Amino acid sequence: MSKQFSAQAQSQALGYLYQVRYALLLLLKTGIEDPEAQISIEYLDDIAFEKDGNPVELIQAKHHVKKASLSDSSTDLWRTLRVWSENLLQGKLQLENVTLTLITTEHASHNTIASKLCPHDSGNRKVNEALDTLVSIAQSSESKANAQAYEAFLRLNQDQKRILLNRVQILDNSPNIIDTRAEIANYLRYTTRPKFLPAVQDRLEGWWFAIVIEHLFAKSPNIIPHRDLQVTLNDIQEQFHEDNLPIDYPDQIKVGEKDAEEDKRIFVEQLRLVRVSMLRVQKAISDFYRASEQRSHWIRDGLLLSKELERYEAHLFDEWERLFAIMQEDLENVDIDLKEESVQERGRSLFNTIQGIKLHVRSRCTEPYIMRGSFHILADRLYVGWHIDFHKRLKSFIA
């Protein structure tokens, strides 16, 4: 892959990601004044705000890593005008009550076309001058990169050109993809404790990108309402309290029967010792994976201290130890001929009991896979077990 192609691919990827992240920022902003705001992405335009099924603002978002000037022959400017001109010519764009916005990280120098099409509330717009310059460039420029854009714009009659430009506004010096994240954080900090802010934002953006992917995959005019964003943000923030923790892996992991059969980890061997069914082994592997990832996620985000996790595991061990002692007592007088079968049965009973208890790492963090998976993590270390002789039988598995 050539360096030029690689740089181009990188730029395009950043452009798409910028578009998605900037849409989140816009919906957060707009929702403050209009809680009924609705947004779509890559349907009517890069980003579109709609009301009652009709577009009220169509937005083109252009991202550049390096700061540059938005010149009169800028490809970003002319590509945007081409999109809007062609849509107007094809009857896809109705200009009544619609604002057409170009958002760019580039800078519009004084007396350029872009500066004359500044936001409507600026008081410095010079639409007629911008129109004259655009027509002059389109008629005289020999730029091959902009040729199709020039052609589309010139196909509009004079009234269409003027009406189109009256709807256009250009927002230059917009924050880049990194600065946009900081802008989003500014909107979240008023409702989020500072120490939780990065973790809350990560989870909100995770939800947002997933929703946008579904939105794009559907290839339909599905809209994302601000109320969905608000509800999701509230739900995320509810998890960030002193007595709670966020749950990031709520869905079961599918574990194939063959994978479970071939799994030789100690916690799986512990289940085999007491003849737990294959389905339950598969569920256990899922709980182990999810709990391991979740606990690591909490620690990385600074939401759970290692000492707190150690105390939680000590509580789990204490509960297991009490129940294990009861099982030992019950097995003391078992007939020797039935001992192994009885041991397996009592071991399954212990495992069943452990699976049903409720010991939570935080009082409001009650997702069962945390406790179940944590027991499997302890079983994988041979700290706990289900068979009466688990340690003797499995100690050879420890390197």
- Low-pLDDT stretches: none
Radius of gyration: 30 Å
Summarize the amount of helix as a percent range.
Answer: 55-70%
Q: How many strand segments?
A: 6
Number of discrete domains: 2
> Globular, elongated, flat, extended or rod-shaped: what is the shape?
elongated
Strand order of the largest sheet: 5-4-3-2-1-6
Q: What string gives the helices and strands in order?
A: HEEEHEHHHHEHHEHHHHHHHH
Question: Strand fraction band?
Answer: 5-15%
What structural class is derived from the secondary structure elements? alpha/beta
Distance between the termini: 44 Å
Q: Total helix count?
A: 16
The overall pLDDT, averaged over residues, is 91
Largest sheet: 6 strands, mixed
Task: Please tell me about this protein's structure.
The chain has 399 residues and is α/β, with parallel strands linked by helices. The protein has 2 domains: 3-219, no CATH class; 257-397, no CATH class. Helices cover 57% and strands 8% of the residues. The chain contains 16 helices and 6 strands. The chain has helices at 3-33, 75-89, 113-116, 127-140, 147-154, 158-167, 177-188, 197-218, 226-238, 257-262, 266-273, 278-300, 306-331, 339-356, 368-380, 390-394; strands spanning 38-41, 47-51, 54-62, 99-104, 168-171, 224-225. Strands 5-4-3-2-1-6 form a 6-stranded mixed beta sheet. The longest helix is centred in the first third of the chain and has 31 residues, at 3-33. The protein is elongated.
